[in-house]
Amino acid sequence: MCKTKLDPKPNFFVLPHLNYIFVNMKKIHLPILGLLFTVSVFGQVKTPNAAPDAKTASKPLTRPGEVKPVPTEVIQEIEANMINIPAGTFVMGCVNEQDSACYYWEKPSHKVSISSFYLNKYDVTQKEWEAVTGKTPWFSKACADCPVENISWYDAQVFINKLNQITGRNYRLPTEAEWEYAAGGGNKSHGYKFSGSNNPDEVAWYDKNSSKQSHPVGQKKPNELGLYDMSGNVFQWCSDWFDEKYYTSSPSDNPVGPRTGAYRAVRGGSWWSEVNQGRTICRDRYPSDAKDDDVGIRLARD
């Protein structure tokens, strides 16, 4: 709901008294009356430079006793956590066509070849987001090592552009195909249903075990490639537009999704979603400008 700024209420207590003074004390000069009127009516108006009150002041991410993250150190940490995903070929989509957990937009299964790329072992954290943008968009809770959330696909692009300007690198969002290949373990895959295990409690935060909130990254087991939280915690934006029928015509080499669409692809499930959405093959979608407290990002680069 949009909030509108209400006009200041007139001071009804002051005005009758000014009338009394004007009628009964005619000898008071008008300049003095003007001064009284100004002070009475406008004395409570806050100046533009006034300090915000406790309700409107923005809360810092760091708590008392914590050291605010230094952007340079945080940025170096981002690069240090980028993992090389070796090239390979895998079967994308629902392999078992009779699996009742599969949705029709996860079919048909098809072979896809992926070139080598890099993917961060963690979701982008609140600490990293604040270091790069200076903003704190999350509204679930302040937690430096929790995934950033409440960001749109467009917000993600702003973050990535700023990070690239700072580092001179070419960070980006992963494609759906890259994401699924990496979540499934790449060329080290054991064929797990979830990213790193057939037991979701070992690798994912989802609706039944999350206490209805996100958690610091890296607390569950990693998958075969050393990637954490590819299943659960927060959904992750991908670069692709979403098309329910894309798998029927997808290229076999490094597919990047349809040319246009109404939604962007998200992957991985979240602390809020049911466990089925944490499957490595599970696809979902969101409007590009949508924000939610269980949608974040993970960085990729060539």
Report on this structure.
The chain is built from seven helices and ten strands. It has a four-stranded antiparallel beta sheet with strand order 1-4-10-5. Strands 8-7-6-9 form a four-stranded mixed beta sheet, covered by helices on one side. The protein is of the alpha+beta class and 302 residues long. 23% of the residues lie in helices and 13% in strands. The protein is globular, with a radius of gyration of 27 Å. The longest helix is centred in the middle third of the chain and has 15 residues, at 153-167. The relative contact order is 0.15. The protein has a single domain (71-301), classed as paralog of FGE (formylglycine-generating enzyme), CATH 3.90.1580.10. Helix 3 packs across helix 4 (126-133).
Summed up:
With 302 residues, the protein is of the alpha+beta class.
C-alpha geometry? globular
Distance between the termini: 41 Å
pLDDT average, as an integer?
82
Low-confidence stretches: 1-60
Radius of gyration: 27 Å
Helix/strand-derived category reads: alpha+beta
Strand segment count? 10
Topology-level CATH name: paralog of FGE (formylglycine-generating enzyme)
- Quote the beta fraction: 5-15%
Which H/E pattern describes the elements?
HHHEEEEHHEHHEEEEE
**How many separate helices?**
7
- The CATH architecture would be Alpha-Beta Complex
By CATH reckoning, the class would read Alpha Beta
- Mind summarizing the main beta sheet? 4 strands, antiparallel
Whole-number total of structural domains: 1
Can you identify the CATH superfamily? Answer: paralog of FGE (formylglycine-generating enzyme)
Spatial ordering of strands, largest sheet: 1-4-10-5
Bin the helical content.
Answer: 10-25%
